[in-house]
């Protein structure tokens, strides 16, 4: 079935072919919707694949529909591109069983791209397009490497599904079960007025997400990190600092691992909603993606490789863009900030500890942290004069007011010396930019305004490092061999805090927040269930012998 639509963005009208079925090697037929110029000639194609159903492409843009992540399709068609949206096997109108980025699904990308390239309206060149799941699929398009694929532009896309999304630091996260059981599966099966059900997606992915607690072969097969070096086509990797807990780490780590031609953009989008909004804005595609596609798919001599910086970073805090020749940023060096006793008098928390450039002395002391706290509500948040407060009943370590700007860009590491009464414990870490506060507000017990800059997680029993993948900038854990800790024994933990590009301004304070859990008030979709066995006391050491410290990638002036 096809229909013609008037061109809103140029002279080219668009023809839409709906429910085009493409047969795979095993007889399963996957469904595609094709958008293409209604004009003679052959055009390069953009290819998008997800379980989000092309039937929803026509709904209005809204952050209510976070899965609508195809971008301005009609605008691309008006500029002489075809656009093919595939329902991956077992979703939407496609046949087969949906099994989440399975090897079968990955091979389907290869076969469908080659089918697209052979169509009479296609000039034989195909590029990957799309956000989030569409970015996950693009990493694998590059890995399976069909001959007709010429480039990919994964916007907002993890490459290490276990570590980036499902088990942060080995800690089970809520997101994947919410994503599948409360969003993808109902959206596929439910219809208006209780109409005939859509695709029921019977495979129990929730079981796999919940029960596969370590990084086994099932996760490896679905994590592009294992094979990203096999990608040969040019890559434009676009991540967002506000997507801590889902995609940001993947876009950066993917860029680091690639051996293909590559560019990295790290935006200042503050959360999933802003990142989603950006992808629907034509000006974003006009500035970043279209020059990339024009060069690699249309052969337009726009000087893209030479004129476009290899690395573009939005410095939050300063609200400005900087360009760098590479990532990790060469002019960034680790600067230690040591955990100290307080109080600082600048924030209300259990300990109000300090954070200093000076190393502690032998009398630097310890900080005890008992959990769960009886005053917690909604996760680890307490109720305060300003409403839910994720700081008051947890640990903070805060610097003095800065006497000059401190600019960071890169990976962040927290070295902790901790003993516990339990056989396991969790570290939930946030790096925050604490704003100056009026003395009257501080006297009234109001919390200062702050901004979460970066987050990190680690489960103590998952402390076994992957020495081959670990670097001074990023500890990398195997998550294959959890081992209990010995109660009372001091261990050194290195917590990977996700990368950031941020300017802590003069007069602001650098703050480290540490807790045993999180809350939807500060972590949105990316929370972690507080399990019944998390009961105990952790002792944080910050003395000369056991100097816990934060390592920040500070830019040289």
Strand proportion, as a percent range, falls in: 25-35%
How many strands appear in the DSSP assignment?
26
CATH A-level architecture of the largest domain: 3-Layer(aba) Sandwich
| CATH third-level topology of the largest domain | Rossmann fold
Please bin the fraction of helical residues.
Answer: 10-25%
How far the N terminus sits from the C terminus, by CA atoms, comes to: 61 Å
Helices, by number, come to: 13
Structural class computed from helices and strand pairing: alpha+beta
Arithmetic mean of pLDDT:
96
The gross shape turns out to be: globular
- As a whole number of angstroms, the C-alpha radius of gyration is 25 Å
Low-confidence stretches: none
Any idea of the CATH class of the largest domain?
Answer: Alpha Beta
By CATH, the superfamily of the largest domain comes out as: Alpha/Beta hydrolase fold, catalytic domain
**Biggest pleated sheet:** 11 strands, mixed
Q: Brief description of this entry?
A:
By secondary structure, the protein is α+β, with helices and mostly antiparallel strands. It folds into 2 domains: 2-308, Rossmann fold; 332-555, Jelly Rolls (Sandwich).
List the SSEs and their pairings.
Blueprint: E1 2-5, E2 14-23, E3 29-37, E4 43-50, H1 73-78, E5 82-87, H2 103-117, E6 122-128, H3 133-144, E7 149-151, H4 161-166, E8 167-168, E9 171-172, H5 175-189, H6 205-211, H7 217-221, E10 235-240, H8 248-257, E11 262-267, H9 272-279, H10 282-297, H11 304-307, E12 311-315, E13 320-324, E14 332-340, E15 353-356, E16 366-371, E17 382-384, E18 387-389, E19 395-398, E20 406-420, E21 426-434, H12 439-443, E22 450-459, E23 491-504, E24 509-515, H13 520-523, E25 536-541, E26 549-555
Parallel strand pairs: 4-5, 4-6, 6-7, 10-11, 11-12, 15-19
Antiparallel strand pairs: 1-2, 2-3, 3-5, 8-9, 12-13, 14-15, 14-26, 16-25, 17-18, 19-24, 20-23, 20-25, 20-26, 21-22, 21-24
Helix pairs in contact: 2-3, 5-6
């Amino acid at each position: 079935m096809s229909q013609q639509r008037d061109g809103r963005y140029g002279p080219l009208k668009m023809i839409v072919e709906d429910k085009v079925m493409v047969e795979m090697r095993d007889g399963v037929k996957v469904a595609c919707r094709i958008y293409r110029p209604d004009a003679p000639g052959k055009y390069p194609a953009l290819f998008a694949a997800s379980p989000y159903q092309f039937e929803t492409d026509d709904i209005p843009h809204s952050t209510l529909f976070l899965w609508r992540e195809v971008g301005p399709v009609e605008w691309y068609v008006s500029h002489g591109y075809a656009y093919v949206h595939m329902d991956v096997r077992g979703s939407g109108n496609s046949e087969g069983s949906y099994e989440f980025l399975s090897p079968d699904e990955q091979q389907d990308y290869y076969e469908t791209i080659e089918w697209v390239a052979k169509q009479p309206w296609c000039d034989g060149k195909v590029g990957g397009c799309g956000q989030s799941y569409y970015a996950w699929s693009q990493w694998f398009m590059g890995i399976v490497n069909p001959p007709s694929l010429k480039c990919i532009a994964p916007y907002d896309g993890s490459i290490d599904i276990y570590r980036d999304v499902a088990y942060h630091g080995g800690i089970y996260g809520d997101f994947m079960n919410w994503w599948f059981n409360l969003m993808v599966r109902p959206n596929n099966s439910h219809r208006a007025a209780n109409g005939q059900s859509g695709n029921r997606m019977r495979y129990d992915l929730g079981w796999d997400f919940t029960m596969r607690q370590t990084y086994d072969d099932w996760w490896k097969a679905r994590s592009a990190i294992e094979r990203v070096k096999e990608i040969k086509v040019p890559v434009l990797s676009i991540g967002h600092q506000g997507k801590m807990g889902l995609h940001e780490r993947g876009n950066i780590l993917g860029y680091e691992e690639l051996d293909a031609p590559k560019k990295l953009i790290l935006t200042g989008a503050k959360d999933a909603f802003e990142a989603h909004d950006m992808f629907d804005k034509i000006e974003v595609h006009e500035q970043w993606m279209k020059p990339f596609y024009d060069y690699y798919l249309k052969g337009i001599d726009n000087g893209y490789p030479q004129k476009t910086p290899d690395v573009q970073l939005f410095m939050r805090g300063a609200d400005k863009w900087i360009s760098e020749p590479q990532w990790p940023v060469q002019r960034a060096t680790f600067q230690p900030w040591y955990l100290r006793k307080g109080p600082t008098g600048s924030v209300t928390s259990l300990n109000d500890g300090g954070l200093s450039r000076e190393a502690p002395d032998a009398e630097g002391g310890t900080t005890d942290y008992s959990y769960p706290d009886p005053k917690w509500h909604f996760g680890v948040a307490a109720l305060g004069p300003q409403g839910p407060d994720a700081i008051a009943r947890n640990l903070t370590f805060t610097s003095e007011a800065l006497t000059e700007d401190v600019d960071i860009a890169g990976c962040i590491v927290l070295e902790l010396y901790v003993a516990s009464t339990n056989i396991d414990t969790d570290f939930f870490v946030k790096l925050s930019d604490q704003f100056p506060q009026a003395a009257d507000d501080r006297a009234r017990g109001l919390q200062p305004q702050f901004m979460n800059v970066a987050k990190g997680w680690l489960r103590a029993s998952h402390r076994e490092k992957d020495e081959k993948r670990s670097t001074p900038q990023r500890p990398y854990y195997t998550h294959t061999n959890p081992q209990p800790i010995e109660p009372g024994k001091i261990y050194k933990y290195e917590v990977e805090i996700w990368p950031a590009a941020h300017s802590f301004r003069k007069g602001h304070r650098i703050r480290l927040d540490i807790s045993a859990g999180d809350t939807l008030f500060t972590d949105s979709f990316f929370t972690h269930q507080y399990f019944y066995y998390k009961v105990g006391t952790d002792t944080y050491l910050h003395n000369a012998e056991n100097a816990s410290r934060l390592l920040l990638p500070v830019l040289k002036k």
